[in-house]
Amino acid sequence: IFENRQIRVWDMCVGTAGEAARTGFHCHEHDYIFMQIGDGYARTESVTAGEVRCSDQLIMVPSRSCHWRQASRDSPQIHQLHNASTTENYRQILVEFLEDKPRLSECEVKQGRENAVLTTNIGTGILFENERCRVHDFTLPPHSGHQLGMHHHTLPYFFVNICGGANRPGEGVHGLRGAGLTKDGSHVQLWSRDRDLVWVDVANGGFAADGSRVEHVHKVWNDFDVPYCSFIVEIK
């Protein structure tokens, strides 16, 4: 659903019956993370040294969890996944890291947070963090989030909407209101569909190039009758 020089993002949805209930064998040649949408139950088959190994172990992946896997061209991961549920799709947002190493060092990331003028907790909960990324859950029930303060983005990031849940990929609409997103300071109304993804290229730790002004400071809240749910992934 998205690709640039740093990352490639997939929406992986495995159905509940027949051929649709498995992914088919595929090869991972880059480190990656995946974020689960709905509790997932699966079995896997992997290829090691040319041999297919089947696992009878049932894997349960909790909803709104994030997991890291390592892979490379020299040490690829080759496998396929079978959905063990007959009622719920097995759905994940998967992010591949296409570059060999992060663009920012841990010292640079830390310095960016220390220089931030406001909180850098940009979601409603942190799901995962390592040297590559920081992953946030962002979930707001209807008519909530007004108490959340302004926040400051110091890293490039994207958010992807998951309001369709496991069984309605690409369906469903939800919305937010936002402040700090316009030059005149007016509030804006933001509508989006499941699977919509927005990439924001934050440079200079969230400041202008000459350091003269702060950028990427805003807040959002849910003023509508339906829940809002997305993942936010910061890239280091």
Key terms for this structure?
44% strand; 1 helix; mainly beta; single chain; 236 residues
Concise structural overview:
The chain is mainly beta.
Structural summary, described in words:
With about 240 residues, the chain is mainly beta. The protein is about 5% helix and about 45% strand. It has one helix and 19 strands. The strands form four sheets. Strands 1-2-10-4-8 form a five-stranded antiparallel sheet, with no helix packed on it. Strands 3, 5, 6, 7 and 9 form a five-stranded antiparallel sheet that branches. The two termini are about 20 Å apart.
Number of helices: 1
Helix content: under 10%
- Oligomer description: single chain
Low-confidence spans: pLDDT under 50, at least 5 residues?
A: none
pLDDT average, as an integer? Answer: 96
Broad structural category: mainly beta
Which percent range describes the beta-strand content?
35-45%
Largest sheet, in brief, is: 5 strands, antiparallel
For the biggest β-sheet, the strand order reads 1-2-10-4-8
The coarse silhouette is: globular
Secondary structure: elements and pairs:
Layout: E1 2-3, E2 7-14, E3 26-28, E4 32-37, E5 40-48, E6 51-54, E7 59-61, E8 66-69, E9 77-83, E10 90-97, H1 106-115, E11 125-129, E12 133-140, E13 151-152, E14 157-161, E15 173-179, E16 188-193, E17 197-200, E18 217-221, E19 228-235
Antiparallel strand pairs: 1-2, 2-10, 3-9, 4-8, 4-10, 5-6, 5-7, 5-9, 11-12, 12-19, 13-18, 14-17, 14-19, 15-16, 15-18
